[in-house]
Amino acid sequence: MKTKMFFVLLVLLCAAFIASAETRKYQAIEIQQFDVKQGVKFPDDYLTSLNNDLQTQLQKLNTFNVRLSDGSQTSDQNTMRIIGQITEYEPGSKTARALFGMLAGSTKVKAHIQVVDAVNGSVLFEDDVDGKVTYWSPDQDSKGATEGLAKEVAKKIKKRFA
Fold first, then answer.
1. Bigger pLDDT: 25 or 117?
2. Bridge partners of residue 113, in order along the sequence
3. Out of 3.40.50.10610, 3.30.420.10, 3.30.70.1130, 3.40.50.300, which CATH number does the structure's domain 26-161 have?
């Protein structure tokens, strides 16, 4: 009986190790500039902020070499690419947040992301993510929603691949 239990445990550990090795084969992440769904009025400077926020949040994981993709470089086998599309955007109002408190004037941004193998394009993971600014702070503007979205992306990447 002990031999069977030991064998089952050994098989499970081997399976976990193999699965872990497969998800850890990626050592780099490229961030491709997000697209904006037709009809969504998402400011261009927010796209720049989103790229920078994504890069910062992913670097904080201390797991991957993170770079912004300009589309000209070729990727190696150990690279995954984040592709996204902004699907919804509500600009909110900093003034309304200051005057009326939480949830009044909230800024919201939603996106659909895909994490793909940078060489062959196969989809490794996809999900919907969002970012919000719901409170007033003197130094917090509506661009904070891009940071919230970036934090959620990093959390999902960490859970899935780190």
1. 117
2. 84, 127
3. 3.40.50.10610
Six-digit token string for 122: 């196969």
Quickly state the pLDDT bin for 131 (edges 50, 70, 90): confident
pLDDT for 3 beyond 80: no
| DSSP conformational letter for 33 | P
Domain residues of the chain, as ranges? 26-161
The contacts of residue 87 (CB under 8 Å, 6+ apart) are 37, 40, 110, 111, 112, 128
The dihedral of CA 120, 66, 33, 143: what is its sign? Answer: positive
Judge whether residue 124 has pLDDT over 90: yes
With residue 158 as reference, give the H or E element that holds it: helix 144-161
Closest by CA to 67, choosing from 116, 34, 29, 26, is: 29
